[in-house]
Amino acid sequence: CHGAHCSPRVTVKYRINSLCHGVCCGWSRCCGMGDFRPRTVWLGHPEKREQRYPRNVINNQKYNFFTFLPGVLFNQFKYFFNLYFLLLACSQFVNELRLGALYTYWVPLGFVLIITIVREAVEEVRCFLRDKEVNSQIYSKLSTRGTVKVKSSSIQVGDLIIVEKNQRVPADMIFLRTSEKNGSCFLRTDQLDGETDWKLRLPVSCTQRLPTAADLLQIRSYVYAEEPNIDIHNFIGTFTREDGDPPVNESLSIENTLWASTVIASGTVVGVVVYTGKELRSVMNTSNPRHKIGLFDLEVNCLTKILFGALVVVSLVMVALQHFAGRWYLQIFRFLLLFSNIVPISLRVNLDMGKMVFSWMIRKDSKIPGTVVRASTIPEQLGRISYLLTDKTGTLTQNEMVFRRLHLGTVAYGMDSMDEVQSHVFSAYTQPSHDLPTSRAPAATKVRKTISSRVHEAVKAIALVHNVTPVYESNGVTDQAEAEQHYEDTCRVYQASSPDEVSLVQWTESVGLTLVGRDQSSMQLRTPSGQILNFTILQIFPFTYESKRMGIIVRDETTGEITFYMKGADVVMAGIVQYNDWLEEECGNMAREGLRVLVVAKKSLTEEQYQDFEARYVQAKLSVHDRSLKVATVIESLEMEMELLCLTGVEDQLQADVRPTLEILRNAGIKVWMLTGDKLETATCTAKNAHLVTRNQDIHVFRPVTTRGEAHLELNAFRRKHDCALVISGDSLEVCLKFYEYEFMELACQCPAVVCCRCAPTQKAQIVRLLQERTGKLTCAVGEEPHNHQTAEGEGKQASLAADFSVSQFKHLGRLLMVHGRNSYKRSAALSQFVIHRSLCISTMQAVFSSVFYFASVPLYQGFLIIGYSTIYTMFPVFSLVLDKDVKSEVAMLYPELYKDLLKGRPLSFKTFLIWVLISIYQGSIIMYGALLLFESEFVHIVAISFTSLILTELLMVALTVQTWHWLMIVAELLSLACYIASLVFLHEFIDVYFIATLSFVWKVTAITLVSCLPLYILKYLRRRFSPPSYSKLTS
């Protein structure tokens, strides 16, 4: 059962993307790319290939040179919005429909498209430069002419490539040799799977034994590799050397691979390339960037559709009032064109530019350094997150381990009693115990000895069963070679794939048994007295997420004993060790203290037993079909009736400021769910520790359920509880979701906090999806490993390639949501409504004008006035609303309750939309009627008066909407006014310049503007006075 639920941490992203890949691969096959086949690769002979392989180029661009324009235009015109404006502009070529100058409709459309095209082009060029940098990195290649330099893009399958320390691996390779003395190397894989742990990789032993790297070209050998696939955690292949006698056959697994995009962390390596270009594991795992469309954009789209409806209705009404006279269908068309301003063309551009500004602000915020915004299309989504799903390890905790407890069943040693362990270890190596016949020793010491020897056995086991390598670096006094020779303590650094392992080895060092040397086949321990113990490593079985355990078989060089040591999670080890009565209980106790528990066991083997095992093991490893199954079966034959030595407990410490951050999120009305692979007790303990569950809250632990009936009873029991946190295990969750998905989600969504433990990555993705479907609210998944359905994402450097936002620490999440999310959402709402108001005003004026002049379809403002209105004259002040903020960021962090208001979606709703529509109609009609009342003799004067009033009204309205002034806003207002006054000189065909200079013009404009704006100012003042919004209470 456990194998099923404990799949590797990263699978989610890949599982989901593999669907997309099916599609892409299918497509590329039609285009003659050829399908994926297994291959035989001759070392150093790329020309001996049996099929065409793709070039080793990385390409992340969306378009190429020829598809760029068509692609961008298509993506723009698939919006109802832009298509509508295109049709409008095209209709101007028909003479009967023509209203005024052609450029009236083409210039705004062109303006919008040019901004979009420039933005896309900038992104494409950035992408192109990034790819070019990767593709043109220089590597050394072994060839018959010695080593030659090659570009990453010209590497072929079959090339022998040399990769230096800290260099990126250019293509998927099989690891042939390393310069490290211990015959292995470490890889940093965070670019590939987001895990910060280093991975140990082993070279093919046949090629590692060759005297020099150049000999690789002298031998006749080939690698057989499986067809390219998406799974980065597995590989099946064989290595064959033909000219050896007898021919050498070696099995290759994931341990012998160096995937592209990983970085070599130690030594210089040589490898043979097996996959390139599109067939790289890393390329097959990156899906095309989804263009995420946020909730906000959908809401705005909805509003524009309503406006479009209004436009059609107004046009029909106008024609109806003409009693459908003459060619009325043409008239409908002309009215549609006249009132086309109702649907604002500049809305999308303004919002898109706003998003770019918000993303830039997040990047530039010095209080959250290292934050990356990948989805620049959805910053305002951060302002309305209702559920936060977080991972535990590495997200809430630091992923740095401290050794806390050693438990031997009858006796346990905590941090304060480590000196006892030390003395036991010391006595074990100093007393000549094995010489004395035991009969003479008194009984008391015999008991002492048994405890002493048990402690010693346990410590020795912990010091041996691991994948840690001690590395020596020069410290200025002693150089590297000397340090290695004398095992210098001050120069030693431990390298390992996971922090748990290092903490255990560091602990054995502190109690006197030090790991001083290790290579492929041996390990050296130093005793407290300084004696060196040599162990030969016969076999090593690495830790996997399915097996949850690791094993090692060593031979003690001094005594010749062969021992099989093993350590693993309590769930799997319970069935492997001999029967005992304390394991389960003690594991539970330690887990309740928040410790991660490992069980250590051993088994002594005779030489015959080992030889028999080895023969079967080698046989299983060479099979190409069902290899993993056969190997597992052979290893399991050893894993029975093992002697239980001890339990170890290490603690994973919380990250800085996790508690205050969780508190902020909770007060902001965000429900936090913690999904983790840990044990129930450990998870509960962390939840309390991190204040995910407050002190006075009850915790309801969901009992393990397996059948429908049990799940039903448990859910009923849970339903009776009130305001209490839920803790549930992955298996029970599966059962509940299978039978009672709806009921379970309904109950869980009401919980203040939910902890899912023993949770597989696939389940994590499923929960995110369910939450979004069930509640329709936004969820944000945070974690080191990528999940596909996130809205915002933190942690882990490259997991975040799938993430929309990545933050370097959990505590930055508070500011990202409370300050940036809140501001982005409120500003986007204000901006969109203002742009709508701006276009509705002018449309109302057009409607009043037409109705006064016998429903004539004549435009009120010609040519440049219309264009200038939505661009030069009002563009800057309206756009400067993106700088507006209602409260200081410190206040927003102090009072997360402000965030709660946003969750109801108040800043942009039908109610606010309606209010703005009414304001627009009021202002438009006041200005128009005012101009008609006060105008003197000429039509030109109406235009002058009404247009000037309109511009002033708009500028005043921006001033009315602003809550906190920013110097750029004032600049924008003054600039717009200056532009208008300056342009009056050129607009004499529309506006009589001499009339403007008269007093009567000034007072008429002032009067109209006052009537249109003053009532709103008064209303705003009254509202602030009698029902102030929550943020204004904090600012005064």
TrEMBL record:
Q: List this protein's GO terms for biological process.
A: endocytosis; phospholipid translocation; retrograde vesicle-mediated transport, Golgi to endoplasmic reticulum
UniProt domain P-type ATPase C-terminal: residue ranges: 801-1028
* Topology relative to the membrane: Multi-pass membrane protein
**Which SUPFAM superfamilies did the record assign?**
Calcium ATPase, transduction domain A, Calcium ATPase, transmembrane domain M, HAD-like, Metal cation-transporting ATPase, ATP-binding domain N
| GO CC annotation, single | trans-Golgi network
Q: Which reaction does it catalyse?
A: ATP + H2O + phospholipidSide 1 = ADP + phosphate + phospholipidSide 2
Q: Which GO terms describe its molecular function?
A: ATP binding; ATP hydrolysis activity; ATPase-coupled intramembrane lipid transporter activity; magnesium ion binding
Q: Where is the P-type ATPase A domain?
A: 144-279
In its UniProt entry, the species of origin is given as Denticeps clupeoides
Q: Which PROSITE patterns match?
A: ATPASE_E1_E2 (PS00154)
Q: State the family named in the UniProt similarity comment for this chain.
A: Belongs to the cation transport ATPase (P-type) (TC 3.A.3) family. Type IV subfamily.
- Which PANTHER family does this chain map to? PHOSPHOLIPID-TRANSPORTING ATPASE IIA-RELATED (PTHR24092:SF49), PROBABLE PHOSPHOLIPID-TRANSPORTING ATPASE (PTHR24092)
EC number of this enzyme: 7.6.2.1
Cofactor(s) listed: Mg(2+)
Keyword check for Iron-sulfur, yes or no.
Answer: no
Q: Which UniProt keywords apply?
A: ATP-binding, Golgi apparatus, Lipid transport, Magnesium, Membrane, Metal-binding, Nucleotide-binding, Translocase, Transmembrane, Transmembrane helix, Transport
Name recorded for this polypeptide: Phospholipid-transporting ATPase
Please list which residues make up the signal peptide. Answer: none
The P-type ATPase N-terminal domain sits at 45-105
Q: Which residues cross the membrane?
A: 65-87, 99-118, 298-322, 328-351, 835-855, 861-883, 913-933, 939-960, 967-987, 993-1019
Detail which positions bind ATP: 391-393, 501, 543, 567, 596, 676-678, 758, 764
Question: Where is it localised?
Answer: Golgi apparatus, trans-Golgi network membrane; Membrane
